[in-house]
Amino acid sequence: MAAANGDVPSLWDESRQLGQLFMMGFEGTTITDQVKTLIEKYHVGSILLKAQNLKSAEQTTQLVLDLQTLAQQAGHPVPLLIALDQENGGVNSLYDEVNIRQFPSAMAVAATGSKRLARDIARATAQELNSCGINWILGPVLDVLTNARNQPLGVRSIGDDPHEVSAFGVESIKGYQEGGVATCGKHFPSYGNLEFFGVPDDVPTITDSLEHLSQSALVPFRAAIAQGIDSMMVGGVAMASSQVNVMHACLSEQLVRDLLRHEMQFEGVVVSECLEMEALSRNIGISGGTVMAFKAGCDLILTCRTLSVQEDAINGLKAGLDNGMIERYRVQESLRRILKMKAKYTSWEKAFSPAGIENLARLQPLHTSISNTAYNKSITVVRDENHYLPLSRVLQPEDELLLLTPLVKPLPASALFHQMQSEMSSVPTFGRSPSVDTNTSVMSGEQVFRELGRSLARYRNGKLSHTSYTANGVRPLHENLLNRARGVVVVTADAGRNKYQNAFAKHVSMLCKLAVGRDGSRKEKPCVVVAVSSPFDFASDTTIGTYVCTYDFTETALRALVQVLYGELSPAGVLPGSYSQKPPTSHSRQQWLVESFNEERDSAALDTLLVLAQNEPSVNASALKNATTSTFLLHDPDVEQAHFVVRNSSTKELFGFCTTYYLKKTAVGHIGAIIVDPARRKMSIGHSLHDRAVRALLQKKGITKFQLGVRFPNVYLGIPRSDPVEYKRLRQWFAKLGWNTSLSNPVAIMALQDLATWSAPEGLGQALANPEVKYDLVFGAEYADAMMEHLTRCARSDVQSIYQLALSNKEGAGIIRAKRASDHSILGSILICRSESKIARFIPSLYKQAGMACISSPVISTMFSDRISIFQGLMLLGLRQLKKQGLRTVLLDYIREDATANSLAALGFTAANSFEEVSSDPVHWTMMSGT
């Protein structure tokens, strides 16, 4: 019988009720005897999954489904709560490189300054977990890092400002709940200011008074309660002050019942820390600890690992009831809270129909965009006193860069305690709490740092040395490499606790300051110190002149770091809380008045601007050859165009021009060109035009994608690549505007220069000899319906406009078709046009060029298995037809530089102009435009 709204099912005996008061873990990646006993015999109602239980998203989904099936078959009236630690950054119990996105840690998200981004990341995380059947996330972390010196929380905390922690914590709660999972704030009353006394196995101690806690550490917990957080985990810490003396917080009536329940009025589920922590089990015992935790006010008792200990906990609670230590009404009270949370987030229907891998695949593009945006916005340049960034400013192409990284253990998976267990840490470890899985890693530190070295090397064309360092300090090998290098990047990972890293970074920084040039004179070497975990390593140490923080050393974080180091990404992050310091900007950006393009008013001025741009000494200017105002004006009912200008209203001159096109059938928005008067470059005109274009496209309802570059009009297919120097400059410029240039496609305009002497390569002619396929050349609007049906069937609405234009113009344009001989169904098509056709007006490289023609927009149906032969047949017939007409040069106006481009090279085509097509998700621009 199912429970609704927290009602306790009738006919549910006491032993079954008691099982609902426990959350337990187990060993194994499938159903084991241990978990079967817990669910079938003891009716345990909540299961904690740890990294050691999880191999992949697919395996996790199956495991959760098996657990829920086991519970239903055992007579559970309601589904299990399945809980997980998934804090992001380095704390991920579920890791799946293919199906689960990597998001930044809590502090990295705070460094972006965007509360909207915090909510989006929380929602995305919850959606992914929910797709696997997980219905409860143990988060967010609400601890205020009031003492950052030796606190193991590090970047798991949002920061040291209680109001900032509150604001970001509340947004995370909203996001998790919107994503369909229950929430759990931790670690009440706070892990943000701990003192370490006694032996390593002892729990740490909070020495703050309740008044002090109330003014700082408890502020985010109050905000979370007001927001409607579902549950709260009470931490495994001691308290010692004039008002309170507590051995374990989760066993204290003063903290749980009096403070959390009564004073702070929390009505949700209270979860104990894992009672298998060594200090508690040694000093009190599991049975006694269970009774004390329940009497203190905990609703769910957590035991994570050993079946004998878990049975001891269950029996202890039974004994407490039998001997009158626990009132039976308390069982009903806790049970109602747990069932109320279950009713909100679970049902048997949900439990047996998780969205699964298919939903994860659907979510992946959006979540990848959110992740990249967050990492890109989190990188923080704390100081750059000598303006060493970007490195391309201070290093010559022939100079060697040295990368020094620490030898570190794998990234920690889960919670607080494992982070203290590094043998290189100077702080005693504490709490052997089995609730913390010590086996999770996103990727070992060495693997990530090797990939960082490879990324830096690609920018240096191999002129990079990379070695590690340890507690042995600066060795002769390091000194030799330092002498040879012209610049140094030193990476630290929690140097505040790993003191050898602090000393090493300072030593290297000093050697760089005292460096001697080739002529024997003092010449300081650029030295950049990068903290890839806690940002507090050198936050207050001004002896480190250039200091960058990434907060995580995941691959995505370090990829963003490389972009910052080389100027492709402007660092936008800020240190959290009281350490907050905006990176200095070199100059304030001029904001220009951007107006909508008016054809009657601006055409003549635009033609003048285009002439100026065409005549500048740049290879990239060739793309504008023969371009006029009419080149950019489509007047197509299926395309919404909005163009913008920066102009001098007095002289009527145009200083800049930008085009946007929204293709209604594909819901894709394009920025087709940004053109600035060469004499007015570096005055922020391009920035202003770009910002206006983005805002215009964001207003298009239903837009699914942003794209830099457009196929038609055929001017700029993306970022021009013909001139390597100019390409690098433009790529960096667009990256600073927010485009993720690492997610791009190389595309090209190709040309066959001497058609008069051309002949088909030997063997390719057989593509036309297939008796199953017939080819024809058609002109005119009477073929429009058949061609539109073909394009629709092939899902190529992106080229419908150019086909319609070709069919409406019998003079100079036509379509070659490949048809199945048996039923005359269209298998493929290409468009051909000469320079006098209407289409040529929108292709500047073709327009008014005597003896030139263009092949465009091949569309091949998936109905025919040998698509390559269809493409070859269409191309060969097109070339033969154009050769017969006496044309000398043939352009192919758009092709991706992949295997297809290689087959075109075999036909005699070469790249005439190459570009980098860059795409982005609309949510990225929504987040870029505000917080």
UniProtKB/TrEMBL annotation:
Gene3D superfamilies to which the protein is assigned, alphabetical: 3.40.630.30, Glycoside hydrolase family 3 C-terminal domain, Glycoside hydrolase, family 3, N-terminal domain
Domain of life: Eukaryota
Domain named N-acetyltransferase: residues: 640-714
One GO biological process term: carbohydrate metabolic process
Domain named Glycoside hydrolase family 3 N-terminal: residues: 17-340
Molecular function via GO: acyltransferase activity, transferring groups other than amino-acyl groups; hydrolase activity, hydrolyzing O-glycosyl compounds
Keyword field: Glycoprotein, Glycosidase, Hydrolase
SUPFAM superfamilies: (Trans)glycosidases, Acyl-CoA N-acyltransferases (Nat)
Family named by the database record: Belongs to the glycosyl hydrolase 3 family.
PANTHER family assigned to the protein according to its UniProt record, in alphabetical order: BETA-HEXOSAMINIDASE-RELATED, PUTATIVE (AFU_ORTHOLOGUE AFUA_8G04060)-RELATED
Name of the protein in question: Murein transglycosylase
Source organism: Capronia coronata CBS 617.96
Organism ancestry: Eukaryota, Fungi, Dikarya, Ascomycota, Pezizomycotina
